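Page 47, continued from p. 46.
Same chain as before, 486 aa.
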Amino acid sequence: MATIAGVAVDTGHWIGGERVPSVGTGDVAETFTDVSPIDERPLAEISSGGAREVDAAVDAARKAFPAWARTSREERARLLHAIADGVEKRVEDLAQVETYDNGALIRSHRRGVMPRVAHNFRFFADWLLNLGHEDFETRGHTNHVSWDPAGVSALITPWNAPLMLATWKIAPALAAGNTVVLKPAEWTPLTASLLADITAEAGLPDGVFNVVQGYGAQVGGPLTAHPDVRRISFTGSVPTARTIAAAAGPNLTPLSLELGGKSPLIVFADADLDLAVDLAVEQYDNAGQVCLAATRLLVESSVVDEFTARFVEKASRLKQGDPRDEATDIGPQIHRRHFERVDGFVQRAKADGATTLLGGGPNDDLGGLFYRPTLFANPGKEIASEEVFGPVLTLQTFDTEEQAVAMANETRFGLAATLATGSPERAERVTSRLVAGTVWVNCFFVRDLRAPFGGSRQSGVGREGGDWSFDFYCDLKNTVTAPWEK
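Result:
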């Protein structure tokens, strides 16, 4: 048990409705240390799982599945709403713990992230009750489409918005009638543990939701290769996704993968420049640790000087500091290892001749894991094409619409794109040619759970949201019935 900002957090796994410590076998230690990115101080010793805990969790989920799958839609929806009620009662606790654990802003957690966690459960509870397809006829035969629960879902979630991104997966999986084994990111395990408490208090049956903490090789490996797992949903890096796909392959386990991005923000000369600058500065949100961030600023040549001057002036006013302070705009990087990765990209870019327009290194005034918001012009190939996942943007120019589209599409990713223009006709032309799972026009990060979400190219496989989530977490069945004799 650990106490974070006055909140008690159990550090054991949650398996079959019980708290379970790790036994520790072979190369798997009994615990690992969870460190706060705010000051790099230890927060808690967390039970570290391995194949034994994975087997126990999958077995608990497998045994709980038949009864949960038979539970009526109405009862499943009621329980999901009860979980949402529990989240709303503990918004402040969840916000405090997650801020300590991942360094994101307390104001964001209080006002947006944790309320969105509750919304995730409410949305899929309500969507479940209206899920359906009209029957249709074929030569007098009736076709009836149904969504049957698939079984145990293995969910592996990232550290940049731990609870919100986890519940994008947990809520539809549970609503679909699946049981869940969650592996939270080892750098941010704490709010997943609190969620387990909330599900129990809401009355979710034992074994329907399970949490196994630990490292990817020790937990993610046996979980994704487990023959009793029927669905795998993962958010994270391309290399890890390849490992998961290889593990899932022998069992032909269906995958949903939301991966990296190197998204463009295209600014045309006819755009509202104040809006365009606001959109660009917004890409530093969460210290740049956002998969959807438009980190490549592509600006029409005729307005690039004015855009750049306004951008640098506005970005320079961002307050970097302790994320527990409501006035802070940018917090730290998540972990020392990630901080060094970000700095490696920056230092190599400068060595390659990139022009530093803003930032360009650690924030020495603050020390620790704080990295200055950075903007490069004349970027080299690596910094302009690889995902940094930190507060690092690049600036490039174009002269024609055709050139802008070509530049936007020239990476191996295709997660999102943002477009700033005053012309509806141009917006329609350009968005139709962009390779991206989501395109925002004169806005950013507007996310409706009714919409499909996912990436193209190496940004992912599959879509989730609305019916798309149920299509993934369920086995779709078409029942064809001949006319009954009267």
